[in-house]
Write a structure and sequence with these properties.
Elements (H helix, E strand, L loop, with lengths): L29 H7 L6 H9 L16 H10 L16
Helix pairs in contact: 1-2
């Protein structure tokens, strides 16, 4: 009896989601984010807030990591807009 092997599947060359820039897929450890100064938080704070589900993060491989989009989102979370740019509540009649 002979066995046949399945054909090897070819993976697509472009990443999923249409992204063509592979740098968007790099995972950074909390220590790398803190050392680079991208966010004003220590590695411990980044890890604690990610564990508490306050900060967006990735858990690939069972470790907390941050994608560039997570870092941008965390920075935007702490942005303060001037008072004249804030929306006023609708007046009730």
């Amino acid at each position: 009896m002979t066995t046949t092997t399945a054909k090897k599947q070819v993976r697509p060359t472009a990443p999923a989601g249409g992204a063509t820039d592979l740098s968007e897929l790099v995972h950074y450890k909390p220590e790398q984010v803190a050392a680079a100064g991208w966010l004003p938080f220590s590695a411990r704070t980044l890890r604690d807030k990610a564990t508490a589900h306050v900060f967006p993060h990735s858990k690939a491989g069972g470790r907390i990591t941050f994608l560039p989009r997570h870092i941008r989102e965390i920075a935007a979370m702490h942005e303060v807009r001037p008072a004249n740019e804030r929306k006023r509540p609708a007046a009730t009649a």
